Amino acid sequence: MKENESKNGRRLAVLCLAGLTALGTAGCGNGVSGNSNVIVSEEKEEIVINFFSPMEKTDPDVENVARTASDLTIIMAEEKLGVEVAYDTYTAENYQDKTYDEVTIDRVCNNMDDIYLLNPDTVLKLGEEGRLADLSGLGCVENLRDVVKTANVVDGKLVAIPQEIVSYGLFINKDMFDQYELDLPETPEDFLECCRVFQENGIETPVGANRWWLETFVFAQAYADLYNGGNTEAEIAALNSGERKYSEYMRPGFAFLQELIDCGYINAEKACVSEAIEGEGPDFLAQKTPIVMAYWGAANTETSYGNPDFNMVVIGFPSSRGQMPVLSMTGFGIGSEAEHLEEAMAVLDIMLSDEALQTYAETNRVISPSKNVEVDCVPALEPLNDKIQDNIYVLGSNAGMRVEQWGNTCLIVRELLNGATVDECMAAFDRLQEESLQE
């Protein structure tokens, strides 16, 4: 079901999301047997901790800041513990038609590595199967933001911890909004009115979209009250038991997307074939499209939206509670039967310490999972950052929900783009929920 083999999807796997979109659903099965993690020399036995992650660099001539930041934290652990951390990375050339998630699941099932960088849906699946170690005993855990624990606890166990929290928002050409005397939208109704004004003034398609990130609109509207209404645990419990339906939450967001499509504010046909940023980015930078959606790091990267020729601001998505950031996160996990479980735990504890996370956050200019670590963001990100610091957000990925959110919603949004009705999309959520209840 996953379609993240594209070069862009691989390149953004660590920076986004979420795992931007590595959305595999394969289960554990027979695979290659585990490999040795110990190198024996004449003088001493050297422990090597194997670390499996996405390939973060597709062009050898391009500097990769994310890998540099991660390397700095790994070096800290190596120097303090006297161990070596060896990288093994995913590339489509090596694994052909297998997605990153499918490969990761196979490697975890066969104890081929010690530490893994996991996408949210993989965290949920492997956590439910008991294949990930409980990290709640690490010293770094006491400094984590509550949102990190909410997103990565499965069956009472903290099975993954990220080095950054990825926030998605609306990237706005503020100059174009000022030109037509438009306030930044707070609600879905505000957003539709802005699009109407733009279109009436000759901007054919006000919203630049791609095939990966339109679900952010859905999450903002679906879960604004769930995550900000003071009753989060009870509502999630009702969803997991079947007392409430996911489709009840999702319907307003899908109806909103359908209206955007019907009015021509989004080009559904183009969105279906557009890769993230590559599809809509040129029109946004050329000031032909005033609105796109992207992740926090895109505002820091000159190859994305870090150096536009106009005044850019990044805000939350429209919701009943106003502008709403959508958060997601990949996370480090350790196999529950890892060959070097104790040593891997020690490595992660240092990599995720406040000292290491400060280095990581300063290098990448990102939101840290530690409540003690903050860095200055670029001015464009301040409106989004202010919301997050006030604990106003929704989660696009939550391992505590029985139905995986990010990947499933992305795929069902694509069905809408391809002509499915809102009712048909809601039926798809109902089927997923019924399947989860039968497991």
Could you write a compact summary of the structure shown?
The protein is α/β, with parallel strands linked by helices and 439 residues long. The protein has 18 helices and 13 strands.
Topology (SSEs and partners):
Blueprint lengths: L6 H5 L26 E3 L4 E10 L10 H17 L2 E7 L1 H4 L4 H10 L5 E4 L1 H9 L17 H7 E2 L2 E2 L7 E8 H6 L8 H13 L6 E2 L6 H14 L3 H10 L4 H17 L5 H6 L7 H5 L5 E5 L16 E4 L10 E3 L2 E4 L6 H11 L2 H11 L17 H8 L4 E2 L10 H12 L4 H17 L1
Walkthrough of the structure:
This protein is of the alpha/beta class and 439 residues long. Helices cover 41% and strands 13% of the residues. It has 18 helices and 13 strands. It has helices at 7-11, 65-81, 92-95, 100-109, 120-128, 146-152, 174-179, 188-200, 215-228, 232-241, 246-262, 268-273, 281-285, 341-351, 354-364, 382-389, 406-417, 422-438, and strands spanning 38-40, 45-54, 84-90, 115-118, 153-154, 157-158, 166-173, 207-208, 291-295, 312-315, 326-328, 331-334, 394-395. Strands 7, 8, 9, 10, 11 and 13 form a six-stranded mixed β-sheet that branches. Strands 1, 2, 3, 4 and 12 form a five-stranded mixed β-sheet that branches. Strands 5-6 form a two-stranded antiparallel sheet. The longest helix is centred in the first third of the chain and has 17 residues, at 65-81. The protein is globular. 50% of the residues are buried. Mean pLDDT is 87; it is low at 1-27, 29-44 and 56-64.
